[in-house]
Design a protein that fits this description.
By secondary structure, the protein is an alpha+beta fold. The chain contains 21 helices and 26 strands. Strands 13, 14, 15, 16, 17, 18 and 19 form a 7-stranded antiparallel β-sheet that branches.
Length: about 800
């Protein structure tokens, strides 16, 4: 048996599975850890940014609170109130200026100034402010309305950005104390702040406009598109006179600023300018509506995260790799005994059943190896027995094989023989078909009707002439019993049943002729006089297997016969009277009524008389025949003792028997009843048959006449040992004027009418005349008569 080499060893499969599992697990762990670390690091970064921002906003708020506080304190100074309550206060009042300057000392305000209720700057540490109208500024409007206020704006005089703080003086408001703080003081500190380590820092005012930025291109940009009210306000107040405030894309940040949100906010925005994710942190400056905003690039923030992630991933990947290697080594170690087992099994399967194996792993492999060894031991035992059995079976098989080969050879020969036989059969079949064709052609060309039947009388072949005569087609006839198709009837007695002559031929194996005066009734009722003969078909062994019948249209012959009969009838009637008177005259002559004749004349007259008698006999026979043929035979029955009549006849023909020296013996059964029969005709029949037996006998021959009978039939047998009748002539015997050749030869005198008349009379009485004969052996004529004789009685 072919052993299949493993495409993937078990070890490799387990290794692959474990490696796959480790790799998947490793990737998942790496991803989870990386995400955790990243989230953690981002959280800690944002926390740092937020805390720094918180520190910065506190510092800024403190500075702003200081400026605001200054305005509040100055507003409380009584001199300031008094100054403003003066009816006509002086610009740059020295006393007031002194107070202002002293208060501003050490505080880096850009300007500390007093505004009257009309919004006009009355006294200022910055002289350029004096006399200027600030009534349109929000901080002035609000302070005059009684509220301290602070705003960021670009100064209308200095044209520089500044923080403005205002406080109303006294409760009934006599003016406003204002402080302008230079933002650079605030911003410079911010620029140095640590936030820059992570990106840029912006100071956003309450409008949402960046008023200080470590990124110069962001200066005076709004965080997002400002609403129209704010924009209108900015325009009216000329807050950013020479600047074009265009929007950035930090809508989330703008919402925080507009909403005045107190809490710190940290979030990511997508910067559409540099297409980078930015980390934005926002924190409100004290109670002011200003915000410090930091912007850090995500990549920068995550740079550190990335490094740390990579390191962690490296460590994990290394650990996994190490794990895989260890596992592979372990598998190699663990699978070594299995390999050994496989090798052992391979050797055993290739026949080395004496090999041994030792595995001492103490696990299932050891048990398996022991079991396999046990199995091999068992197989060894079996194998031995098997070998012996195989030897015996092989011997048996080769014996059987040898027999089979012989049988095969025989079968081959039989096959060849059968093929030959089949070939021969085919040839024969073809020959038979050709023969059949030939026969059919011959049959169809025969003018007489021919039909062939099988053993059962069924039609198997017919020719065209038969089709014509019978009126049936070939297909109508085929397979039918001939008697169903061919209605043969006797012309004289059409009602009597016609003998089944085909059956007779098949049973007896004789050639038969149809009865004389037979007619064939066709399909449409036409009748044709026919003559025919039926002969048996025999196999080579002589067994009868069918019958062939030849039917001849006998119409013309029958007409000829009829005219002959007519002629004979007329002639015999015409001859009867002169022959009678000739006989009468000759008898007178011989009796000497006309005078004594001399011896010579007497002899001549006697010869004439004998000839006259023969002629009268012939004419009587002819008249009988004529009457018979015309159906004019009338019986004159009387009670007749047959035995007596026969004996009388034997005596009457004594001159004939003596001339031939023939012995006649008769055996008359006295119990035979007397018959009611026409005596004259019975005598005629018997005379003819007995005289024939004498006539056609040898000199010194023997004739026996038997009369026997029972209650139904009477049988008269006339036997002789004379010349007999040739077989071929037997058929026609009994026809009118027929004489056998040998009879003519031995007995020139004769008419061939006696037998015909006898047969007709016997048949007329309902009896039968049977002729049996063999040439040179003798003849036997049997007359069978019924006890009840049929008779045509004279009317
Ligand atoms: P005929 O005797 O005048 O010839 P029949 O009619 O008596 O005519 O007989 C017809 C023929 O039958 C005879 O010619 C003869 O050939 C044959 N025949 C009749 N009887 C015998 C017989 N006993 N032996 C041999 N032939 C016979």
């Amino acid at each position: 048996m072919n052993k299949s080499q493993p495409k993937l060893s078990l070890r490799l499969k387990i290794s692959l599975m474990v490696s796959l599992w480790v790799a998947t697990f490793g990737v998942v762990i790496i991803l989870v850890i990386q995400n955790l670390v990243t989230a953690n690091l981002i959280a800690s970064k944002t926390e740092t940014i937020d805390s720094i921002l918180s520190e910065q906003t506190h510092e800024t708020a403190r500075r702003l609170d200081d400026a605001k506080g200054s305005a509040d304190v100055v507003a409380e100074i009584p001199e300031i109130g008094e100054y403003l309550e003066l009816k006509d206060p002086k610009f740059q009042d020295e006393k007031v200026l002194k107070i202002l300057k002293e208060f501003g000392l050490g505080r880096s305000y850009e300007s500390l100034y007093i505004i009257n209720t009309n919004g006009i700057a009355m006294t200022s540490t910055d002289p350029s402010f004096v006399k200027n109208d600030f009534s349109f500024r929000k901080y002035v409007i609000n302070a005059l309305a009684g509220n301290s206020y602070s705003e960021m704006a670009i100064g209308s005089v200095s044209n520089k950005l500044g923080f403005y703080f205002s406080t109303p003086v006294k409760n009934r408001i006599v003016g406003v104390v204002a402080v302008k703080l230079d933002p650079a003081v605030v911003f410079n500190d911010l620029v140095l702040s640590k936030v820059r380590d992570y990106g840029h820092l912006f100071f956003v005012n309450s409008d949402g406009v960046i008023v200080s930025a470590t990124k110069p291109e962001f200066l005076y940009k709004s965080l997002d598109q400002l609403n129209s009210d704010t924009l209108a306000e900015i325009a009216v107040e000329k807050r950013y006179p020479n600047e074009n405030v265009t929007p950035l894309d930090y809508s989330k940040a703008l919402q925080v600023v507009i909403g005045g949100n107190d809490n710190s906010k940290v979030f990511f925005v997508n910067d559409k300018i540099d297409m980078e994710q930015e980390l934005i942190a926002l924190r409100k400056v004290g109670n002011y509506r200003y915000y410090l905003m930091s912007e850090s690039n995500q990549t920068d923030v995550l740079a550190a995260v990335k490094t740390i992630s990579l390191v962690i991933m490296g460590i994990i990947a290394g650990a996994l790799f190490l794990g895989v290697i260890i596992q592979l080594l372990f598998l190699r170690f663990a699978f070594a005994p299995l390999r050994k087992l496989v090798d052992y099994a391979g050797k055993v399967s290739s026949g080395a059943i004496n090999e041994a194996i030792e595995i001492n792993t103490g696990d299932e492999l050891q048990s398996l190896s022991e079991s396999i060894q046990d199995m091999v031991l068992n197989i060894k035992g079996l194998y031995k027995g098997l070998e012996e059995q195989v030897t015996v079976k092989t011997a048996e098989l080769s014996g059987a094989l040898a027999i089979m080969e012989v049988k095969n050879g025989e079968m081959d020969n039989s096959k060849k023989a059968m093929l030959n036989v089949m070939e021969d059969l085919n040839d024969e079949k073809e020959k038979i078909a050709a023969e059949k064709n030939r026969i059919e052609t011959i049959l169809s060309s025969i003018g007489d009707g021919v039909f062939v039947t099988d053993e059962q009388g069924r039609l198997v072949m017919v020719n065209q002439a038969v089709e014509k005569m019978s009126g049936f087609t070939n297909t109508e006839m085929y397979g039918k019993n001939y008697a169903e198709i061919f209605k043969f009837v006797n012309e004289d007695s059409s009602n009597s049943e016609y003998p089944n002559f085909v059956n007779e031929v098949i049973v007896n194996g004789n050639v038969l002729s149809l009865l004389p005066h037979t007619v064939l009734i066709s399909k449409n009722g036409n009748s044709t006089p026919v003559l025919d003969s039926a002969a048996p078909l025999r196999t080579a062994e002589g067994k009868v297997f069918g019958c062939v019948v030849v039917v001849r249209d006998n119409t013309k012959e029958r007409e000829l016969e009829r005219s002959k009969d007519d002629f004979l009838s007329v002639a015999s009637h015409q001859l009867r009277t002169p022959l009678g008177s000739m006989r009468w005259s000759l008898e007178m002559l011989l009796n000497g009524d006309a005078g004594e004749l001399n011896a010579e004349a007497t002899e001549i007259a006697k010869q004439i008389y004998d000839g006259n008698l023969r002629m009268i006999g012939l004419v009587n026979d002819l008249l009988d025949v004529s009457r018979i043929d015309q159906g004019k035979v009338m019986d004159n029955p009387t009670v007749v003792d047959l035995g007596e009549t026969i004996d009388k006849i034997i005596m009457e023909i004594e001159p004939l028997t003596m001339a031939k020296n023939v012995q006649i013996s008769s055996t008359i059964d006295k119990k035979v009843p007397k018959l009611n029969i026409d005596l004259q005709r019975f005598r005629e029949v018997m005379t003819n048959l007995i005289s024939n037996a004498v006539k056609y006998n040898k000199i010194g021959g023997l004739v026996t006449v038997d009369l026997a009978g029972d209650e139904a039939n009477i049988v008269i047998t006339i036997s002789d040992n004379g010349i007999g009748i040739p077989k071929n002539d037997l058929v026609r015997l009994g026809s009118k004027f027929f004489r056998a050749k040998n009879a003519i030869h031995s007995e020139s005198e004769g008419t061939g009418l006696g037998l015909y008349v006898a047969r007709k009379f016997v048949e007329g009485w309902g009896g039968k005349l049977i002729i049996e004969s063999e040439v040179e052996v003798g003849s036997k004529m049997t007359v069978r008569l019924p006890v009840e004789i049929k008779s045509k009685i004279k009317e």
